[in-house]
Design a protein that fits this description.
β1 and β2 form a beta hairpin. Helix content is 43%, strand content 9%. The protein has five helices and two strands; from the N terminus they run αααββαα. It is mainly α. It has two domains: 83 residues, no CATH class; 40 residues, no CATH class. The chain is elongated.
Length: 161
């Protein structure tokens, strides 16, 4: 695997990798993972997955910003005539409003960086079943039933006096 392949894989599975690290920590907590119900384990998986996605979004924002003001937004419309005019839609937060107001008519660089590119996983996390599967060996049941139930001919049964 080349270095660029490794970097692509790491980027694609970053949130899953973070989740797996956190789940490893949770599983070694004072209340063992195995003592938690399946529902409680699924709740923890859900919480950790949400937390790692939030961490990834923040990381992408920091990386994209390189110490610059940023807002997450979508380009909803643009026109090309003596330059490009774009219409952006962003969350209506005080921080976003201040950043836009402070930077009107200022030079800017638009960075297209989607956190969704980094939210992925190698595989789905699985909670331990509350009731583990019983080990059953194929063919064992048939032989056991034959041994337990002897063949009997009704003609061999003695008559009752």
């Amino acid at each position: 695997m080349s270095e660029s392949d490794f970097e692509d894989l790491a980027a694609e599975t970053l949130s899953g990798d973070l989740r797996d690290v956190v789940l490893t920590h949770i599983r070694s907590m004072e209340t063992p993972w195995s003592k938690m119900s399946e529902a409680a384990q699924n709740d923890k998986i859900y919480a950790v997955t949400n937390a790692t996605e939030t961490i990834v979004r923040r990381a992408v924002s920091i990386i994209a910003a390189r110490e610059q003001d940023t807002i997450f937004c979508k380009v909803t419309k643009f026109t090309v005539k003596d330059g490009i005019k774009a219409e952006l839609v962003a969350a209506s937060s005080v921080q976003n409003i201040e950043r836009i107001a402070e930077n009107i008519s200022q030079p800017a660089i638009m960075v297209f960086a989607s956190p969704e590119e980094y939210i992925g996983q190698r595989s789905e996390p699985k909670a331990d079943k509350d009731q583990p599967e019983l080990p059953i060996v194929e063919g064992e049941d048939d032989e056991a039933e034959e041994d337990e139930l002897p063949e009997a001919d009704p003609a061999d049964v003695p008559e009752v006096a």
